[in-house]
Amino acid sequence: MAQTEPGDQEADRPAFEKRSLAAQAMGRIDPATRAVVPPLHLSTTFLRDPDNGYASGYSYARPDNATVRECEAVIAMLEEAPAAMLFGSGMAAAAAVFGSLAPGDHIVVPQVMYWGLRRWLGTEAPLRGWEVEAVAMDDLDALRAAIKPGRTKLAWIETPGNPLWTITDIRAAAEIVHGAGARLAIDSTAASPIHTRPLSLGADIVMHSATKILNGHSDVVAGVLATARLDATWERIGSIRSGSGAILGPFEAYLLMRGLRTLHLRVAAQSTAAAELAQRFRRHPGILAVLYPGLPEDPGHAVAARQMEGGFGFMLSIRVRAGEDAAIATAARVRLWKRATSLGGVESLIEHRASVEGAGSPCPPDLLRLSVGIESVEDLYADLDAALRMAG
Ligand code: PLP
User: What are the residue numbers of the active site?
Assistant: First the structure.
């Protein structure tokens, strides 16, 4: 890590905290200009050396890019990983993990998961010869029972799981999965590397839709994987990214790196606000239930308290007591919350998920998904309270 000035005694210096490294995007100073914010590398091609080699390590922009690498270094640091790889979207990152599997492989996935990935697997798995089995991942016995030793090659988990915020015990799942010789990959988008570091709990690969809290400003579509080790699977995933042209563009990587500088502040503020709203909404007469792992009565709370640090995330869902029509009417009547899909941005979003997820979704029709941003908690509460009262 280029953190030092010439003459510094690096060995004698204390290690910096992650938030310090992220705030400075690893603190690299551009050697040519001494710029504190690194330049954006847009070139798609690079001059060959007279000896026919590429000593810089760059030859063409589809396999690799310097701005992408700089951004990957920040995420690898946050995930305590030896390497991270950026993709053009969260779906492209997930697809690369599944793409490393072979026909005939058995895969276990959660019943509660990002609906787009469930739908993609539903289309792709039969074409590619993968056998996909969905289990209730908050029930470790169900996971154990689903594993087929020798045939199961991958278990995919998502915790907290979108949109019910179901919690899976990562450490216990890793033990079960590894015991059968399979790998554990995790969609950790809703936890962020601030609340959970899945690799330290035994996961092999962690994935984020970086479109969400990592970027945080709803202006970049990106995905990332971080690995526990530099092995043949990681190499294969790298060749899938390069061969299929799934790398993130440099401008998006630059914006994402800017977002990462404030990740700690945003996650702290958004999770604190989500926890406060969850507490207040659980007493609201118009709300049947609040789904949030930070609430003591939540079925996932004990595990979440063990594996999440510094909060329980910025996502929660509410079930509207008067039913589906009232839920849709509530979303229609808010003024500050924005009626839109996605999550993790600084602006708070509300969405009637059943309308989006369609058949096969475990999402109840009266559910509204809330992504909590950085606005005033009082304003957010008052706006939704007024909408609930008008709708109910
Ligand atoms: N995983 C989760 C939990 C998501 O919410 C999303 C997108 O909403 C994805 C994965 C897919 O990410 P992207 O939209 O960046 O492809």
Answer: 62, 114, 187, 212
